[in-house]
Please model this.
Amino acid sequence: MDFALFFTYLAACGAAAATGAMFQPGDWYKSLAKPWWTPKDWVFPVAWTILYICMSWAAMRVAILAGSDARVGQALALWSVQIALNTLWTPVFFGLRRIGAGLVIIAMLWLAVAGTMMAFWQVDPVAGYLFAPYLLWVTIAGALNRSVYWRNPAGSAAS
Model:
């Protein structure tokens, strides 16, 4: 295990996680109509902590192979795209209160996570497996975002 690489990727995840601290759901989100299957509030930080560790570990495993496989560069570029979209969603959804724009971002995030998972799988199957829970979580989050969008047609940018 290359701890320097792991902690470098974890730092990128930490920057994404910081948006959650800066743009918390608050009363606006609590007032929105949500489906019955919405996860409890405590689930989100637990899930994201586990996911960020898995994402960092997967990226580290792939980065270690940089000299031996030409596909590594593309795989890590996809990792960069997904973490950028991950970072963007929270300020757009919770900060700007743009539910529809959040839905567009999370759809793009889902594609980026799926692409990263497939690219990682080709280079290192364990790294691909480490991304599977993330894809599942983004699938659930996307379905939740879509449900909130449909249930709250006037909810974007509401005070």
About this structure: The chain has six helices and no strands. The helical segments are 3-22, 26-31, 43-64, 71-95, 99-123, 125-151.
